[in-house]
Design brief:
heterodimer; A: 219 residues; alpha/beta; Glutaconate Coenzyme A-transferase; three-stranded mixed sheet; B: 233 residues; eight-stranded mixed sheet; 5 helices
């Protein structure tokens, strides 16, 4: 069965390593924070200027001056630092953030990503997404493998205006985990009960399948 | 010492000199850390054809959103403008011009503007619509886009504490774009929660040195929360 949003987040959380600085985008990426594996410590970066983002505040802790990049009220954990937007993007652009997780409309086999603009629909802006994809050492994209009409979102070439070029390294969809390298999607894992054939059928870009593809394991 | 007393006592004095067609850089992220009273004063002044540079454009009825009500903004430079129905309407009607700018590039444009750097190369936006019409260059195998700096006729910022010298300290994440905006205005006006006695701010803990700030006014802030999220505790 295709993964739920929470399961996608759980699988992405397996990419976290002890000591990582991580920026999580809005939507499914935000849920990753709920599944940080036991025994490892990560520091969440929020691009409005907070390193060490904590959970939502209690009523008593609520503070209008303490928000995340989604403009939600948050808290800071012990060891947190707060700084300006320029400082925040210096650490992003400078490659100091270990992992960025974000959603997308489309990705292609060359690692290009389109996530901010659908021509003909109102464009609200790219926020920090272009800076994040250009700067992060390691980018994981979360998305559904195909749209609601069954059209693949993993393409040979993105059709929508790009957010960044050649930057996506890994994709976790509701059907599969794939690596992007050498101009192709390499299938690493499949969702429990999902066949390689189904993934092949829903992947429009070049898909490389090597040997038996294991099912994802959730602890 | 009067020359270093930057405190003004009315919003009229705080925004004196603002004229039609000027560029105003505003600090804030969403509704967090916005100079509420200075924005309200611009609305009152009915100044038109403004270019406003800020990460967002407020919401309907609050923050920079109120400057849309009488169509005072001609052009908005921002990274994200999705929170605002009136904005959408004026954009679709062609009454409002928008230059969408990646958030980090926007922050750096302000920083560069204030620091006397006319333009800078960044990988952000290369190969995307943002790079169209801009100079690009390959440096050590990576592609970069040349982005011009931004300066403003006015910069309006919100700070937590200030002294009469214009030294500023920001509170929590209301800092956001405010320190860069403060450096990039020909006239920088800081609306602050508290004006403290001289000598009270620790010199090593000042976020924005007073050299960047021309006027300081004590404000009263509603501090509206855009997305109120709480957990049980």
């Amino acid at each position: 069965m295709a993964l739920s949003r929470e399961q996608v987040a759980m699988r992405v959380a397996q990419e976290l390593q002890d000591g990582y600085y991580v920026n999580l985008g809005i939507g499914i990426p935000t849920l990753v924070a709920n599944y940080v594996p036991a025994g490892i410590e990560v520091m969440l970066q929020s691009e409005n200027g907070l390193l060490g983002m904590g959970p939502y505040p209690t009523e008593a802790e609520l503070d209008a001056d303490m928000i995340n990049a989604g403009k939600e009220t948050v808290t800071a954990i012990k060891g947190a630092a707060i700084f300006s937007s320029a400082e925040s993007f210096a650490m992003i652009r400078g490659g100091h953030v270990d992992l960025t997780v974000l959603g997308a409309f489309e990705v292609d086999q060359n690692g290009n990503i389109a996530s901010w603009m659908i021509p003909g629909k109102l464009v609200k802006g790219m926020g920090g997404a272009m800076d994040l994809v250009a700067g992060a050492q390691n980018i994981v994209v979360t998305m559904t493998h195909a749209d609601k009409y069954g059209n693949s979102k993993l393409l040979s070439d993105c059709t929508l205006p790009l957010t960044g070029v050649g930057c996506v390294k890994k994709i976790v969809t509701d059907l599969a985990v794939l690596e992007v390298r050498e101009g192709a999607f390499h299938l690493l894992e499949r969702a429990p009960g999902i066949s390689v054939e189904e993934i092949q059928q829903k992947t429009a870009g070049k898909l490389v399948i090597t040997g038996d593809i294991p099912e994802m394991v959730f602890n | 010492m009067a020359g270093f007393n930057k405190v003004v006592h009315s919003y009229e004095d705080a925004m004196a000199g603002l004229q039609d067609g000027m560029t105003v850089i505003a600090g804030g992220f969403g509704l967090c850390g916005i100079p509420e009273g200075l924005i309200a004063r611009i609305k009152e002044m009915k100044t038109k054809d403004l270019t406003v540079v800020s990460n967002n454009c407020g919401v309907d009825g609050f923050g920079l959103g109120i400057l849309l009500e009488d169509r005072q903004i001609k052009k908005m430079v921002a990274s994200y403008v999705g929170e605002n129905a009136l904005f959408e309407k004026q954009l679709l009607n062609g009454e409002l011009e928008v230059e969408l700018t990646p958030q980090g590039t926007l922050a750096e444009k302000m920083r560069a503007g204030g620091a006397g750097i006319p333009a800078f190369f960044t990988a952000t936006g290369y190969g995307t619509p943002v790079a169209e019409g801009k100079e690009t260059r390959e440096i050590d195998g990576r592609h970069y886009v040349l982005e011009p700096a931004i300066t403003g006729d006015f910069a309006i910022v919100r700070a937590w504490k200030a002294d009469r010298y214009g030294n500023l300290v920001f509170r929590h994440t209301s800092m956001n774009f405010n320190p860069m905006a403060a450096t990039a205005g020909k006239i920088t006006v800081a609306e602050v929660e508290e004006i403290v006695e001289q000598g009270e701010l620790d010199p090593s803990q000042i976020h924005t040195p007073g050299i960047y700030v021309q006027r300081v006014i004590k404000g009263n802030f509603e501090k509206r929360i855009e997305r109120r999220m709480v957990r049980q505790g």
